[in-house]
Amino acid sequence: MIELRTLQEHIRAAVGARRPLRIRGGGSKDFYGGRLEGELLDVSPLSGITHCEPTELVIAARAGTPLRELERELAAHEQMLAFEPPRFDGRATLGGCVASGLSGPRRPHCGAVRDFLLGVEMIDGRGRLLHFGGKVIKNVAGFDVSRLMAGSLGTLGLLTEITLKTVPRPRAECTLQFQMEQAQALESMTLWGGRPLPISATAWHQGVLRVRLAGAEAAVRAACASLGGEVMDGADEYWESVREQRLTFFSGARELWRISLPAHSPVLAASEPTLIEWGGSLRWLAGEQDGSALREHVMRLGGHVTLYRAPVKPPEGPFQPLSAAMLSLHKRLKGAFDPHGIFNPGRLHPDL
Amino acid sequence: MVIDRLRRLLPADAILSSAEELKPYECDALTLYRQTPLAVALPADETQVSAVLKTCHEAGVPVIARGAGTGLSGGATPRPDAVLMSLARLNRIISLEPLARTARVQPGVRNLAISEAAAPHGLYYAPDPSSQIACTIGGNVAENSGGVHCLKYGLTVHNVLALRLATIEGDVLEIGSQALDAPGYDLLALLTGSEGLLGVVTEVTVRLIPRPQCARVVLAAFDSLAKAGQAVADVIAAGIIPAGLEMMDRPTIAAVEPFVHAGYPLDAEAILLCESDGTAHEVEEEILRVEAVMRRAGSTDCRVSRDEAERLRFWAGRKAAFPAMGALSPDYYCMDGSIPRKRLASVLQAIRDMEVRYGLRCTNVFHAGDGNLHPLILFDSNIADEVVRAEAFGGEILELCVREGGSITGEHGVGMEKINQMCVQFASGELETFHEVKRAFDDRGLLNPGKAVPTLHRCAELGRLHVRGGQLPHPELPRF
User: How far is residue B303's CA from residue B219's CA, in Å, rounded to a whole number?
Assistant: First the structure.
């Protein structure tokens, strides 16, 4: 265990010496985001569940707590993290989960990491220990700084404790598969998304659309009957491998591009293999791409592109560029939390 | 003079300055505080909104945005030195995409109007604050409004995909996206609930969801608050996330029943309304489970709505709770605080004790599903002393909420009303951070000044200092 005071002093010393810090939990997402710069600040000793109250739908834990530990505790109470964050071989920590803001297959049907964030304890770039949000769902006092932390990639401060809203596990689950080409799969996902079906995940790859249904037994049974298709065996393992990116499509890719766009967008012309999730709003492209052409095209469709995984991180950063006005606001906001720019420089944007 | 400059920018009927014209804007739904604004601007579109902001920024004049003026915390209370900008004329639904299940709307569009427009497509906009017939989506974004169904369907922040935001300098930023995420910081989350302090929303893209096929509600009566509170916990523990879970206490039941004739049992200490929605199968299964939980928890009377008319009747009382207070008292002060659900019984007991101490009655409705409490303090504003006592009573309830691990505001916002209690919920570090965030957006502090985030000086002056871990905050300030 590491004392918060120790961390505060360490941060203040780094500020004094203008020495950047690289925050790391399990290092499971080192591949993700911009450059890794700074002296390593290992948060993994800051671990342990601090509050778990299933009937309040709340769990709180220190940032270095492995996600696996959290999920085991929740499973014992028939609960789960609704947004299905990847654990990446068990190394992922709660802090990294929130800082990276990466959600799994269930995301479009229940919400993202930030939708379940109730509160954070953090140390800012002045070494101050701060508490935002709390342990209750209905809390609109002050600016929503806790939710701002989701996806901020550690650039706004060191998360030390995080409180999340939990959900009950579904009582029944069933995955259906359909032989379909991409265009038809996109159309089907759009259509079914508008119907009251208990869909909890979708994925299309190599001519097969898979749809996971979850919820009340009667509802799942009725949905299976109305949708048809073929019931899939080993569905749990399949969805795990989607969530953890263990499918060959992911693990075999030299470059992996993440395209986030409106679900009903048309088929993207691409020569490389693609895997589609989130009802069509998350599309993965494997292999080398003309990044700027892709970004331009996707932007016009209302989306954005991330070079999710590559052998070398590009100097301009992996994310869709921000407009000048947005970047300016981002710099001011960063300055509000980390005036001396010591936390994870370059991780979210090369200039932040 | 800024009014002259605004008159040159906007049509004649878009700037109000005479006493009679300004009167309707002197307060929002927190009628305890009234002020005449410097002027009222009624821009018709985003371009005019930007122009008003730019002009006021150049003149150093503050701007207070207002939707429908239904806010309960004084977020739109004017100031004599500030221009009150009403977004009421930005009331168009720009587009509604049934396949994408989104709608792009202007900030002055009423919450319910969005659902009404989506209805022909079998869709609706889920967050349903009780003022939804009148409140605007822009106001909902400013407060991060909730409503009865937010436990299952989320708050405003969970149902908004994108915004256009006019900054105090008059620039317009696109925040969020029609995709499920956007690059950079989650400004959408930061802006939702920012109470008009960081910018003015000029367009909102909301998420629409399929209308549930059916809904039924369980009405369960209990002979003690403790049992009712336990039943709430039991529902959640059973893995049920109801569409709505509301509680009313005995005085509230007594006040509403003669008003709505919903058939509430008058001898109950508390009643729970637990709604289930979804497909017919889902609802059938869930209602059975809810009934079982209620019976096991000791419900003295448990009924299930037999049809839509009965369901609406069961809800009528809950919805009439606030207006029904009018029969009990010339005035009432609606509080808004949140607590962990399990603390309900003890908090209600503490409120009963406060009733005696303050010599005022307080009835309670409670979003039991998510721990959001609405104590209604009854008083007579003609008796000067009662206003002061009502405010003190309210302040004490909020401080109790914080002590119990909750928040001073679950959905109504801080506004003017709870600005002092912010000094209790937050320490100086957090308040300073809020000020820094504010400065990042509005360096001169022109957007809705004096609301939501207190200065450290205010906290110190009030003497309501938050002591965390035995350490006195603001150690840099002298005390004597």
Answer: 5
Phi–psi pair at A267, nearest 5 degrees: -60, 135
Are A101 and B186 inside 8 Å of each other by CB?
Answer: yes
Name the pTM for this structure: 0.94
Closest residue in chain A to residue B418, using alpha carbons only:
A141
Q: Order across the sheet with B160-166: list the strands.
A: B93-97, B102-105, B200-207, B160-166, B172-176
Cβ of B189 under 8 Å from any chain A Cβ?
yes
A82-103 pLDDT, tens per residue? 999 999 988 999 999 999 999 9
Minimal CA separation from A251 to chain B, in Å: 24
- Percentage of the residues of chain A whose pLDDT score is greater than 70: 99
Residues of chain B with pLDDT under 50: 464-480
Interstrand relation of B83-86 and B63-66 (parallel, antiparallel or unpaired)? parallel
Query: Is B404 in contact with B343 (CB distance < 8 Å)?
Result: yes
Q: Which among B365, B362, B408 has a CA at the least distance from the CA of B386?
A: B362
Is B330 in the A-facing interface, judged by CB distances under 8 Å? no
Tell me what pLDDT residue A135 has.
92
Q: CB of B278 within 8 Å of any CB in chain A?
A: yes
Per residue in A223-281, pLDDT tens? Answer: 999 999 999 999 999 999 999 999 999 988 899 999 999 999 999 976 578 999 999 99
**Is A141 in contact with B414 (Cβ distance < 8 A)?**
yes
B5 contact partners, CB below 8 Å, separation of at least 6? B55, B59
Q: What are phi and psi of A259, to 5 degrees?
A: -110, 120
Which residue in B has a C-alpha nearest to residue A328's C-alpha?
B440
Instruction: Note whether ipTM > 0.85 here.
Output: yes
Nearest-10 crossing angle of helices B250-260, B308-319: 120
State how far the Cα of A137 lies from the Cα of A19, in Å rounded to an integer. 37
pLDDT at B471: 40
Share of chain A above pLDDT 90, in %: 93
Kindly list the distances between the CA atom of residue A286 and the CA atoms of A74, B201, B306, in Å, as whole numbers in the listed order.
Answer: 34, 38, 54
Which tokens is B117 given? 């427009």
- Alpha-carbon gap: B99 to the closest alpha carbon of chain A (Å): 7
Q: Within 13 A of A72's CA, how many CA atoms are on the CB side?
A: 9
CB contact under 8 A, B338 and A138: yes
- Cβ of A168 within 8 Å of Cβ of B239? The answer is yes
- pLDDT score of B342: 85
- Position of tokens 């203040």? A12
Q: Give contacts of B 209-248 with A, CB under 8 A.
A: 210-213, 233-234, 236-237, 239-241
Q: Which of A136, A160, A261 to mutate to test the interface with B (most CBs of B within 10 A)?
A: A136
Which pair of tokens denotes residue A158?
């060191």
What per-residue confidence (pLDDT) applies to B468? Answer: 40
Which of these, A110, A305, A275, lies nearest to B182 by C-alpha position? Answer: A305
- What pLDDT score was predicted for residue A273? 83
Strand boundaries in A78-182, DSSP class E: 79-80, 117-123, 129-133, 158-165, 167-168, 172-179
Q: Measure CB to CB from residue A143 to each of B194, B405, B406 and give the nearest one.
A: B194
